[in-house]
Amino acid sequence: MNADDRRAALAEVRQASNCSHPIRIAGEMVNVTTGEVFRRGLTVACKDRRRAICPACSYLYKADAYIMAAAGLIGGKGIDESVLLHPRLFVTLTAPSFGVVHRITHGQQCHPHPRVAHCVHGHSLVCRLQHHPGDAVLGSPICPHCFDYEGAVRWNAHANRLWNELVTRLRRELGASQGLVRRELPHHFTLNYFKVAEFQLRGLVHFHVVLRVDGPGDPNNAPPLWATADLLTQVITHSVRLERLILETGDILTWGRQLHIAQVHEGLAAKRVAGYLAKYAVKTTDGSLELVRRFTSRQQVDDLRDPHQRRLALTAWDLGFTRHAHAFGYPGNLITKSRSYSTTFREMREERAAYMAPNNDLAVIPGTFLYDGRGYLHPKAQALAELFFAMDVELRKEAAQRKVSSEMNPSEDQSISQTETPGSPNPQQIQEK
Ligand SMILES: [Zn+2]
Ligand SMILES: [Zn+2]
Ligand SMILES: [Zn+2]
Q: What are the Cα distances from residue 344, in Å, to 113, 352, 425?
C-alpha cells in the first residue's frame, strides 16, 4: 500500500470507531470555513449494543452503560458525590416458575428428589446429573408438556408493566410509612432507578435494578432522614410479595419467589454493581446469533435448533408478539432508567462526538444523508478495525487492572485516586486521556 492508500484505510477505520459492521452513508457536507458544499460518503459505526453482532460498538455501549450506572451510585455526570449517602439498593427481581427446568446447583444433582416422581404425562421428574455451564439442557424443562409456555411468554411480554406498577407501589408505600398521601410525595422524596433486563436460560427475563432514594426535585438534594436503606428493603420485600397485575386476558402476573436485595455501601461495591449492570446490557437473548434479529416468518422461528427456544419463540409468534418472538415476547428495552437517575446515552454520545471532532471544518448537512451500503470500502480496513479493537481492549484491561491494584493499596496512590473522576476504571476515560 502506498502512503495515500494507507491513509485512506486508516481514516475509514477511525471514522467508524473500529466498528465490525459499519454502515456507509452518503450525502452533502459543508466546509464551515469556506462555505463550500460537496457530496461525500462516510463510513460510520453501526452502534449495535449486542456483542454477538458488533464487538467494537458493544464495547463502547458497555462503557457508556457503566458510566451511567456508576454515576448514579458514586457521583459524576451531574450527580454529586453526596449520592454515596443516599440509600441505594441493588435488587434482582425474577419471574415465577412456569415448570421445572434443568439447573446448576453448585456441586449437587439437578433434581434428585422431586416432590412427585412422575408428572401427569408419565415423565420421570428425577434428574441426577450435575450440570455444568454450557450444558445444552440447562434451562429446558424436565417435561416439555408440563412447562407453561403461554404463561412464560405472557410474563415476558408484560414484565415491564409489572415493573412500572411496582415502582408506583414502592413510592406510595414508602410515603405511606410516614403517613404521606400520594400528592405529598414529590415534596418529600424521589425514587430513582436504573434497570437492566437479562434472560435466564429458561427463557424468562429477570431484572437487575439499582434503586435510590433522593430528596425532592433535584437528585442531588438529600433524602429525608427517615428514608433509610433498611426501610426501603422492607418496603420492596413487602411490595414484591403483594403485587398482582391482572391482564385483559384474565391472567394474573406476579414476581417469582427469588428476590435478592443488597445495600450498596462504599465506592468499590458500587463500582462492582455498575460493572454487573454494564455486562448484562450487551447480552442477547441467549448469546447466539440465531436470536439476534426479528423473525420475518413463522418458518424462520420453526427452524430454531433448540427445542425449548423454538417452543418459546413459536408461542410468542402465535400469541401475536411476532415482533418480539426472538426475545420470547419481551418487548425491550434492555436498559431503562428514571429520568433523573444520571446521564443518558444520548448525552454521552454527544460528548464523545464533540471530543472526537474538535478541529473539524466539515459539517454534515442534516437530512441529505442516505444509506449507501454496509461494510468498509477499503479492502484492508476490516482487518485493521479488528486489530485496533483488540489492541484497544488489551490496553483498557491493563489500565483497569492498574487502577484496581492501586485501589487495593490506596496509600501508594492516594493523590491520584482522590482527584480522579469517580468511576474512572472505565475504558472510556482511559481512552480520553
Ligand atoms: Zn459496530
Ligand atoms: Zn437436569
Ligand atoms: Zn409432564
A: 49, 13, 19
Helix (H, G, I), strand (E, B) or coil at 11: helix
| pLDDT tens by residue, 4-49 | 888 888 988 988 889 988 999 888 888 888 888 989 888 888 888 8
Say how many Å lie between the CA of residue 45 and the centre of ligand 2. Answer: 42
Record the pTM: 0.82
Q: How far is the CA of 75 from the centre of ligand 3 (A)?
A: 51
What separation in Å is there between the alpha carbon of 148 and the centre of ligand 3? 10
In the chain, the amino acid numbered 255 is: W
Higher pLDDT, 346 or 417: 346
pLDDT(413) > 50: no
Domain borders along the chain are: 3-50+346-432, 80-98+148-341
End-to-end CA distance of the chain: 31
Q: Which residues surround ligand 2, an ion (CB under 5 A)?
A: 102, 110, 127, 129
Look up residue 315 and give its DSSP letter: H
Ligand nearest to the CA of 99: 3
CA 16 to ligand 1 centroid distance, Å: 8
Q: Which cell goes with 304?
A: 430454531
The sign one gets for the Cα dihedral 394, 398, 403, 405 is: positive
- Other Cβ atoms within 10 Å of 263 Cβ, number: 14
